[in-house]
Amino acid sequence: MKAVVYHEPRNYEVMEVPKPEVKCNQVLIKVYSCGICRTDAHIHEGDFISRFPLTPGHEFAGMIVEVGEHVADFKVGDRVTADNAVECGDCYYCKKDMPLFCENFYSLGCNGPGGFAEYVVVNENKVYHISDNLTFDQACFSEPLACAVHGMDVIDVHCGDDVLIFGSGPTGILLTQLIKNGGAANVVVCAPSQEKLDLIERDGYAKTIKMDKNDYSKHTKVLKEMFPKGFDIVVDATGNPRVLEQCFNFPKQAGKVIVYGVAASDDKITLSPYQIFNSELKVLGSFAQIHCFDRAVKYLESGIIKVDDLATHHFDLADFDKAMEQMLHGHGQLKIIVHPNKD
Ligand SMILES: [Zn+2]
Ligand SMILES: [Zn+2]
């Protein structure tokens, strides 16, 4: 089969590799849609938990073409998506019922073979049926949406909260939709791209304020005028350490600042310990997800979370270099979807 293979960071090609073998508890999925996200840009650089050689791709959906002999709940022809996160079940944190921190964390597309390939093999217990109403393009949002669902568990939005979100990437917009549906009174997105802010306003996800990347005082002034007391919750959905730093200008007393975007592993920020102490701020991290797929797929199936406007670019597997180029250096993209197979 054809697959993207990274031999080492930044060095990849689309090449012929053996089709994966299916163990007794696994299914083989023919991949129709696989999303690219910021995590793939970090993996491209050899960051995050990447291990090489690697076939990336952790946001995929497709059709089952083969099932292992002990697989009971799936059959050939089923339309599915899959949770790429695999916990070992055995380590200190798994036994502490904290599988997100599994010490042997295995993640398809991060340190194991993922969905930028014609086929991907997945353990049966990580596979989720999708209905005929959901397209594969919609279904491949289940992974970023699952991360946003986990974000909701971390953030714990209270009824009537005022929420400020920096960033208008796809995972930020998914989180914005969940927060809006999760009881917030005001949701404001601040980001530099007018095009994306227009989309957010048009689809009714949030109010928006344009961010001036060169002069933070401009959007700060507008936000302070609109919300003089600040916000109960301030989310960084950019992964940019400078943006995260200025998040601390906006929380109310005892407010929460959420580190939701993925920064580089060696990025640093400057904080005022006195502010955290005196305002009793809660600084919370939200990392990936585990066991959130069930809820994510339900949100997609119900249509409560809308993703159609987020899928902006499509590429064949053979053009993975163009897809990656768009991800790393392009403009105007939200979700880029790679199609290893076409029907
Ligand atoms: Zn992702
Ligand atoms: Zn474990």
What's the SSE blueprint?
Blueprint: E1 2-8, E2 11-16, E3 26-36, H1 38-44, E4 59-67, E5 79-82, E6 85-86, H2 92-95, E7 106-107, E8 119-123, E9 127-129, H3 136-139, H4 142-155, E10 162-166, H5 170-181, E11 186-191, H6 194-202, E12 207-210, H7 216-226, E13 231-236, H8 241-247, E14 251-259, H9 273-278, E15 282-285, H10 293-302, E16 311-316, H11 320-329, E17 335-339
Parallel strand pairs: 10-11, 10-13, 11-12, 13-14, 14-15, 16-17
Antiparallel strand pairs: 1-2, 3-4, 3-8, 3-17, 4-5, 5-9, 6-7
Helix pairs in contact: 4-5, 4-10
One zinc ion binds at residues 37, 39, 58-59, 143-144.
Describe the structure.
The protein starts with a strand and ends with a strand. It is 27% helix and 27% strand. α4 (142-155) crosses α5 (170-181) and α4 packs across α10. It is globular, with a radius of gyration of 20 Å. The chain is of the alpha/beta class. One zinc ion binds next to α4.
